[in-house]
């Protein structure tokens, strides 16, 4: 079993009993191509999950619209009954079209249906943490989030949700949400090249609120950087390991959820915790992205 230090230390979610290792696992890639339909190799997907848990991972990020339903069903098949220290984080606010399209949907009907879909497919009575997915496909959109958030608050009062997080939101929307409910984590698009949330992360760190970057490796368009390539070569690791190590060094409230459908890639991701970056190396990597910009070198 990998110890806590080897998994990048731990993070305590505020006002919860959840203590997670900073390197978790993102389950999106367990589904088929374009996160739609079944995986090419279901047995390997199951093996990835089991090895992640055996290696000390105790934080899995998922959603029932991955597949749809596929990812959660694989998680259940691989891990149920779940380890007592495993925290499952899901998200609602979208659904999939029959053609695999991503449809953003924060209607009352879809949010309630999504919660029950997650509960059924994960075989749970209550969901540990549910992120309300706002914004567009990769960036927040202005406006109040009170109406859809109120739906999750009601479901929490019913005992179906233990804690609420937000995804793809602005600092102003987070502040609005805090007047209505306790928010335990934020999940936004952020990586070494996409740095628009720099100030937001620092503000969340002061409140001990977790920040979980999605697309930490660039998402559907993997990060490309000559600087990262040079650093990786000097350290004898992959550029993607460097990108993840930079995130661990960036702020103590950042949790990693890089995903993969292969055990070889899983091991590379977990080994990131052993990777130390010297101050001059961090300065080099900082040059890739400028706060507020989304360029890639």
Describe the structure.
- With 297 residues, this protein is α/β, with parallel strands linked by helices.
- It has one domain: TIM Barrel.
- It has ten helices and eleven strands.
- The strands form three sheets. Strands 3-4-5-8-9-10-11 form a seven-stranded parallel beta sheet, with helices on one face.
- Strand 8, helix 4 and strand 9 (161-167) form a beta-alpha-beta unit.
- Helix 3 (108-122) crosses helix 4.
- Residues 1-5 and 291-297 have low confidence and may be disordered.
Brief descriptors of the model:
alpha/beta; 35% helix; TIM Barrel; disordered C terminus; two-stranded antiparallel ribbon; 297 residues
Task: Outline the fold blueprint.
Layout: E1 10-12, E2 19-21, E3 25-26, H1 42-54, E4 59-61, H2 70-79, E5 87-92, E6 94-96, E7 102-104, H3 108-122, E8 127-133, H4 146-157, E9 161-167, H5 171-178, E10 183-187, H6 198-206, E11 210-211, H7 226-235, H8 239-250, H9 263-270, H10 279-286
Parallel strand pairs: 3-4, 4-5, 5-8, 8-9, 9-10, 10-11
Antiparallel strand pairs: 1-2, 6-7
Q: How many domains comprise the coordinates?
A: 1
CATH A-level architecture:
Alpha-Beta Barrel
Q: In one word, what is the shape?
A: globular
Count of discrete alpha- or pi-helical segments spanning 4 or more residues? 10
Low-confidence stretches: 1-5, 291-297
CATH homologous superfamily (4th level) name: NADP-dependent oxidoreductase domain
């Amino acid at each position: 079993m990998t110890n806590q230090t080897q998994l990048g230390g731990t993070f305590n979610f505020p006002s919860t009993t959840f203590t997670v290792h900073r390197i978790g696992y993102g389950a999106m890639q367990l589904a088929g191509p374009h996160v739609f339909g079944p995986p090419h190799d279901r047995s390997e997907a199951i093996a990835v999950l089991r090895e992640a848990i055996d290696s000390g991972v105790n934080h899995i990020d998922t959603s029932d619209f991955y597949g749809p339903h596929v990812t959660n069903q694989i998680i259940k098949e691989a891990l149920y009954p779940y380890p007592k220290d495993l925290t499952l984080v899901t998200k609602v606010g979208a659904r999939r079209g029959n053609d695999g399209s991503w449809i953003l949907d924060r209607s009352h009907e879809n949010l309630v249906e999504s919660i029950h879909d997650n509960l059924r497919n994960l075989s749970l009575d209550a969901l540990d943490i549910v992120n309300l997915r706002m914004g567009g496909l990769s960036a927040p959109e202005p406006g109040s989030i009170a109406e859809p958030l109120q739906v999750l608050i009601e479901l929490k009062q019913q005992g179906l949700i233990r804690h609420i997080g937000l995804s793809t939101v602005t600092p102003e929307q987070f502040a609005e949400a805090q007047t209505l409910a306790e928010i335990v984590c934020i999940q936004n698009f952020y990586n070494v090249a996409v740095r628009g949330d720099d100030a937001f992360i620092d503000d969340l760190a002061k409140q001990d609120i977790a920040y979980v970057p999605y697309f930490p490796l660039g998402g559907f368009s993997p990060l490309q950087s000559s600087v990262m390539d040079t650093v990786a070569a000097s350290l004898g690791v992959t550029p993607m390991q460097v990108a993840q190590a930079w995130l661990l060094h960036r702020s103590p409230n950042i949790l990693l959820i890089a995903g993969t459908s292969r055990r070889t890639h899983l091991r590379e991701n977990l080994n990131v915790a052993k990777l130390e970056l010297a101050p001059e190396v961090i300065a080099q990597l900082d040059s890739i992205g400028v706060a507020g910009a989304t360029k890639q070198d």
